[in-house]
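Milestone M4 deliverable, item 7.
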Amino acid sequence: MRKPSARLLALPAVLLFGALLSGCPNPNSYGTPRTVAPGKIAHSVSLESYGYIGETTELQENPDTGQMEPKTRTTSGFLPTLPSYQLRAGLTDNLDIGAHVHNLSSFGVDLKVNPLRGVFDLAVDPGVQYFFLSSDDASVHIVYLNAPLMLGVNPADWFSIVVTPGVTYALASGDIANDDDAAATGDGLLLRGSLGFQFRTSDSFAIHPELTMMKSLEGPGMIYNFGIGFNFGALPSYKDLQEPM
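Output delivered:
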């Protein structure tokens, strides 16, 4: 039995396969720390792309000895993915819940708590994402447990800068087959960081580009998501930032 490293980011073949299926890890929120008002609903549709940088090892013949020796090289890729959809529902003044369909292929849910609002906003937004990858030589279940801290700066009532540091824990199980069938399980801790900008053109519409990078703590791999979210519906209010008439 071959048991690959727990570092999912060091498995570029699996990651590339996941990207092709648009089932890659997707921590982008396309939102700000502020929560949706109680009883209200907001929506987000995003156009996205996915990339990775990792390492792969293959056997190559040494011309001096004629022996096959392992050689490590850097591999990378960048692909557009299918769109994502998000629905957010306000529960209380400082709490809302989100349901996600990531890249039309995986599902997620998160719960945002927003204790601080003003020129500076703060929220915690734990969530989970699940997807399943399957082909002739790979079958993997992957769960990502996300623990981000959302920090927002609001220079004006129509514009916000959002920085989101955090960690993600990946749980994976399934089969990855090369020459020999192999059962594999893997998990790992990743650092993550996001930068987003929200432009609100009205009380019910906003455009939100966002970039998130995720780095394995156990290896050289890195993945990143870039997308543009289009938010509409009962968006969080920023009327408290308006200057009095």
